[in-house]
What does this fold into?
Amino acid sequence: METSMGLLHSKDMRIRHTESVEKRSYQAPREMRPHVLLQIPRNAKFNTKLFVEQRVAICSENCDANVNKILLINSAANERVTCSSGDNGLCKVRDMESLTVKRNSSCIVTSGNKQVEQGLTVSAEKDYPSQSHLNKNSTHISIATTPPSGFSVNVDNKPLCISMWTLNPFSKSSDLYLNRDNYSIRYVASFRTGHYSFFFTNQIKLQNQANMVSKVIRINHSFAKPFQSYTDFVIECQDNTGKSYTILKMATLIQIDGTPTVAAIFATSSDDGSILFTKPLADINKQTIDSWINFMNRTCSKTSFKSYLEQSINCNVNLVSHLFLLF
It folds into this structure.
């Protein structure tokens, strides 16, 4: 791993420019390429010598080939949030010491004349990933869920994409739903820094077409309604021969010489190679601002424009006065 990280500091890598943004790219070491998620049907607690002290079954229903999908450690409350494909994907809060369930997620949905209780669920299918992280104060989680058929929907039968949940009680506070049929979004990575949530996707370029692109999503939790700050833009990179890599496989936030930097692995659309790509977080944030302004201008103009997400847009917002909130 020392060799792999050493590559990030290489000074003799050629620098290419795509869309006027600096991108450094090269072949990803094999040990840093994505791995298949291990199928582990239990939560386990280890001691300081890494011996297992306790195991707790995390699934009681539909547990065949159960896969852990979300594990968040909330040190402030001495709890962990777990979501797996078993138990129909229901997410739970567990005590850190005993590993017992303290709270199940819950959400009351009105359907006709009935009120139905729905929980936060991830896909019960192992090939549909979910991404999540705690907010700055560890009081909420933001979670993005890749929606397959039969996934959690709202009263209009629209699949849930990104939502925010309070942890005590474990209940939904806000959400975004998919607004189009036959539109695929796959959430492959996420992280939080400060009051920003970042999610990374593979999604179809145009509705009812097979071509895929990768996108960066940013949500600003300092907004009174965080999803009104939602913005995304396409991200891709090229190697020194001009070969394009458009499918993001994983991404994380690292430090390079003290600079917050996004490191991501990209593959080609034909999956015949992959590279490791780095880009300063400041550049990502600048593109986010430009994208948000363009989105608001298009959405609030007389030009017909429809988002693939069911968003609440405030077209009376003063873009200039809101720019300081975006940084």
